[in-house]
Write a structure and sequence with these properties.
The protein has one domain: MFS general substrate transporter like domains (Growth Hormone, Chain: A), CATH 1.20.1250. About 75% of the residues lie in helices and about 0% in strands. It has 16 helices and no strands.
C-alpha cells in the first residue's frame, strides 16, 4: 500500500486557503457591501440581484473547459494562472463607475473563477485516496466557507471604514489573493512528481475527456442536483441581508445573519465529511442534506426573530457539506476517477454556475409579490435537486481497490 505523501496535507490546506482568499472572501464581500455600492452607483434591487449572479454567465461555458485544462496540463499550472487572472480582474471591480462597467468586470471575473475551483478538486482527487476523498473535499469546502465568513463579517463593518470605502476593500482582497501564487510555485504537481525517477500524473487530451464525461448519465443527474443547491444558496446569500433589514433588523444583525450561516457551514463541514467517508453510501446522506436546505429556505419566507435564526441554521449547517459530498460523488462515479476528475468537476460546475446565474435575479423579481416569496422559489429549486438525486447512482468510497491513492500508477522514466 502506498504511504501518504508528506506533501498532501500541506497542499490541501494551501488549496483551501486559496479558495478562501481568492474566491470566498472577495465574492461574499459584495453581499454586505451592496448598501455602499448601490448608493454610490445608484443601483436598484433587481440590478443588485443581477450583479450578484452575473458572474456565473461566462463560468457556465468556462467550467467544462477549465476542468479539461486541468486534465490536459495538470492542476498546478492551471491553478497558478487562475490565481493571477482572478485576482487582477477582481480588483478591477473597485474601478467601476456605474452599473454597466461593474457588470462587465464581474462577468469576466466569473469566467476565470473555474480555473481555481476545478484545479482544487482535481488536486484533491490526485493526492487523496477514496477513503479520505470526502474529508479532503470537505477541507476545500471549509476553506471557501471560511473565506465567505470573513468576507461577510469584516468587509462592511471593519475593512470599509478602515480602508476608506468599498472600492479599497476590493483592492485589498485582490492584493492579498495574488500572493497565493507564490507558494504554489514551490509545490510538487502530483505525488509521482515528488518521487525521483517517476513522471507526473497521466494526462488526457481535452476532446477525449469532454467526450467521455458528457456520455455519463450519472454526472448529468448530479449536475441537475448541483443546479438546485447552488441556485438556492446563492439566492439566499445575496438577498438575506436586505430581506432582514426590511423586517426591521439592524444592519449589524442582518449582516451577522449571513456570517452566522457561513459559520455554521464551516463548523460542521469536516464532521459531515469525516462521517461520509465511513458510510457505505453517500447518496442518502446527500438527500437528507438537500431536504434540510429546502426546509430551511422555505421557513425563511414565514419566520422572523429566533425562528429565522433557526431557519438560517438549517441552511447553513449543510450548505457546503452538500457541495463537498456531491463533488465527491462525481469523482467516484464509474468512468470518472482521478484521471477525468477535472473535466467531470468542471462539467457539473456548469450546472452550479447556471443556478447561480438564474436564481438570484428571478427570486429578487418575485420580491415584488411579497418579500418572502423569493425563498419559496429558491426552496423549490432545492426540491428539484432532490428529485434528480433520487435517480442518481450511489457512490461508495470502498469501491476503490486496496492501496488506491486516487492517481494512476506512476510511469517509470528510463
Amino acid at each position: 500500500m502506498n504511504k501518504p505523501s508528506k506533501y498532501q496535507w500541506f497542499i490541501l490546506i494551501l488549496a483551501a486557503l486559496t479558495g478562501a482568499f481568492v474566491i470566498g472572501a472577495p465574492a461574499t464581500s459584495l453581499a454586505v457591501l451592496f448598501k455602499e455600492i448601490s448608493s454610490d452607483l445608484h443601483l436598484n434591487l433587481v440590478q443588485m440581484g443581477l450583479i450578484w449572479s452575473i458572474g456565473s454567465l461566462l463560468a457556465i461555458l468556462s467550467s467544462p473547459l477549465s476542468g479539461a485544462l486541468d486534465d490536459r496540463f495538470g492542476p498546478k499550472r492551471v491553478m497558478i494562472s487562475g490565481i493571477i487572472l482572478v485576482s487582477l480582474t477582481a480588483g478591477m471591480r473597485g474601478l467601476a463607475t456605474g452599473f454597466s462597467s461593474l457588470l462587465l468586470i464581474i462577468v469576466v471575473v466569473g469566467g476565470l473563477v473555474p480555473l481555481v475551483t476545478t484545479s482544487s478538486y482535481k488536486i484533491s482527487g490526485i493526492w487523496f485516496p477514496h477513503g479520505q476523498l470526502g474529508l479532503a473535499n470537505g477541507v476545500l469546502a471549509m476553506g471557501m466557507a471560511f473565506g465567505a465568513l470573513l468576507g461577510a463579517l469584516l468587509s462592511a463593518t471593519v475593512l470599509s471604514p478602515a480602508l476608506g470605502g468599498w472600492r479599497h476593500v476590493l483592492f485589498f482582497y485582490a492584493a492579498l489573493a495574488v500572493l497565493f501564487c507564490i507558494p504554489w510555485l514551490f509545490t510538487p504537481s502530483a505525488p509521482a512528481a515528488a518521487k525521483p525517477g517517476t513522471a507526473e500524473l497521466v494526462t488526457v487530451p481535452m476532446r477525449q475527456a469532454l467526450t467521455r464525461i458528457v456520455k455519463l448519465k450519472n454526472v448529468w443527474l448530479l449536475g441537475i442536483t448541483f443546479l438546485g443547491i447552488a441556485g438556492c444558496v446563492q439566492g439566499i446569500a445575496g438577498y438575506l441581508p436586505f430581506y432582514l433589514r426590511g423586517l426591521g433588523w439592524s444592519g449589524a444583525s442582518a449582516d451577522g445573519a449571513l456570517s452566522f450561516l457561513n459559520a455554521m457551514s464551516m463548523i460542521l463541514i469536516l464532521p459531515i465529511m469525516f462521517w461520509t467517508d465511513r458510510l457505505r453510501t453517500r447518496k442518502w446522506l446527500l438527500v437528507a442534506m438537500v431536504i434540510t436546505i429546502a426546509m430551511g429556505t422555505g421557513l425563511l419566507s414565514i419566520t422572523d426573530g429566533l425562528a429565522a435564526w433557526g431557519a438560517i441554521a438549517l441552511v447553513g449547517m449543510v450548505r457546503d457539506g452538500s457541495t463537498a459530498v456531491l463533488i465527491t460523488m462525481v469523482i467516484e462515479t464509474d468512468g470518472v476517477g482521478p484521471v477525468y476528475a477535472g473535466t467531470a468537476t468542471g462539467f457539473v460546475m456548469f450546472f452550479f454556475f447556471a443556478g447561480n446565474l438564474l436564481a438570484p435575479p428571478i427570486g429578487n423579481q418575485l420580491a415584488e409579490i411579497s418579500s418572502g416569496t423569493p425563498f419559496l422559489f429558491w426552496g423549490g429549486l432545492a426540491a428539484l435537486g432532490i428529485v434528480s438525486l433520487l435517480f442518481a447512482k450511489s457512490s461508495r468510497a470502498e469501491n476503490a481497490p486496496p492501496g488506491f491513492r486516487g492517481i494512476p500508477e506512476a510511469i517509470e522514466l528510463p
